[in-house]
Fold this sequence. Notes:
Layout lengths: L2 H11 L1 H25 L2 H4 L7 H31 L1 H9 L4 H41 L11 H27 L3 H7 L11 H22 L5 H20 L4 H8 L1 H6 L1 H8 L6 H33 L5 E5 L8 H10 L4 E10 L3 E9 L5 H15 L3 E3 L18 E3 L4 H7 L5 E2 H11 L1 H42 L4 H37 L5 H39 L3
Antiparallel strand pairs: 1-3, 1-6, 2-3, 4-5
Helix pairs in contact: 2-4, 2-6, 2-7, 2-19, 4-7, 4-14, 4-19, 6-7, 9-10, 9-20, 10-14, 14-18, 14-19, 14-20, 14-21, 17-18, 19-20, 19-21, 20-21
Amino acid sequence: MTLNEITRKLISQNKSRYILFGLSICFAVAMAGAYGVLLFSRGITDVLMTDGSTYLISLGMYGITMIGIGVFLFYANAIYIQLQMRKIGVYLSLGLPPKSVGKIQNQQLDITFLIGGAAGLVLAIPFSFGIWSLLSLFISYTDGAFRVGGKGLLIAGGLWILAWVILRIKNAVHIARLDIIKILRASSEGEEVKGSRPALGIIGLTAVPLGLILFNITAVIYWLKSFSVLFLGVSLIGMYILTAQITSMGSIIKRFFPNPYRKGILFYNLVRQKGNQYTLSLFVSSLLITLAVFAICFNGSIFLELYYSIKEEPYDYAVLAGESGEKLDENRIRFFADERGVSLSKWHSLDMLLLGREHQYLFHGSNTENSSEFQKGLLADIVAINNGEIFVSWQDQVIKDKMERYEDIYIPYDGNELYAARWWEFYPYVKQTELDVQMEAGAVYLILIFFIAIISFVSATMIMGLKIAGTIMQDIECYKRAMYLGLKENDLKKIIRKQIGLIYFFPVICGCVTASFMINRFMEASSATRISEITLVAIGLSLVVFLIQLIIFFFLQKKLVVSTSKIVYKGR
């Protein structure tokens, strides 16, 4: 057989590996592109201030998610190369030099990366639109048009090409250093444990809350504000140190709980021999889950504060009329109310002289179930009085005489309903429907935050899943040796479940606990008044995240435990 025939046969026998690796690339690029397509679209940038806290948090999460997706691609590549070891061994046994084998592997990598990445870019837009549409079912949005942010596709394309180049070089260097002996040892090769110190883990565990507490203290002291961000860095470093020392957990158990340690000695030794292999995956996954929970609660706190603010408003209705207020006076408002079966009481009116003469009417009303129709009638009349236009340059009126070529700016109400609900001073206030109006006006905030939280959550889950797959694959030879020494199948399954549980639940617990504490400290340092309620929402959301991950874990461990057990015991 010629070399080309051998290559084609090996590819045909292992095509599922190329498909899975290609799908991993496709999914990673699609997620990166979908996130960017929305984040940089005009549907977002036209509504949100690009230097505002919501958008800056979104950009920060975008950057960290890009890192997470990059880590995911590196783990996918590591598993792909691990699966290719036998094939590489075949080439080396035929006498091909490692560099030539590297070229063959890189040709196959190029084809897989090209097809997978191109498919990911193509699918990024429908993927983004699908999540946008799904969220729009639950979050009403006045300006619901989906727009494509081309910059997001460019960034996703850049990530794809950068990962392609780096992995191509990495694989070529790795294969060039291989020989048959290394390949035979590769399946059970562990990493040398460096700097494994339980004391460092305790320091890391202490640094996470300590950094957040110090941030909370310094953020409210004027001359220390500029240093407060540094303490967030302390928490970040603490989280990294904690994850780096997770492999030393056996030493702690051995010291304080010797009997449980002896019973699970194989599990603790398997964890310990991984060295620092867990660090990056657990750290990035923990960070992504932390930011997903934090972002939802931090930005959602605005709406929670709004809910309580509306609840405590003393009046049910408020109407503001401009200079032409005689067209919308108390009699006309009562007429609208009577038409819709709303009885008004405790009427309070106020004439004001601000930039112009204005009339404010505050009052209570019965039959709140009809308040929405009453508001629509008032709004239609106010729009008609203003000739269907919204005056948007009122802030410039006070300096009108100092501006050359000044002119009033009016925009039509039709097509600018979202702007009117958010900023138009003449928009009628109805206590019963105000939260719905403001939720709809601010829906773009919620859609964006939930969108990026979904992407971050999926990225974290994918990283954990790939790390689990890589760990189990690496430990198969250890399982076989333990089986030869008399390890029972049920005991093996327990060990595998523990390994999966450690990799899977450490980021979930670490991320959720950190996010809940973090949101509490941030709210303490802000002007929020409902800190306890917001913290409870964070805890509730963390429990939901934990429950979702628990369900995923149940199915994942069931599949992996059964398949691994079959591989280990099939030769018995």
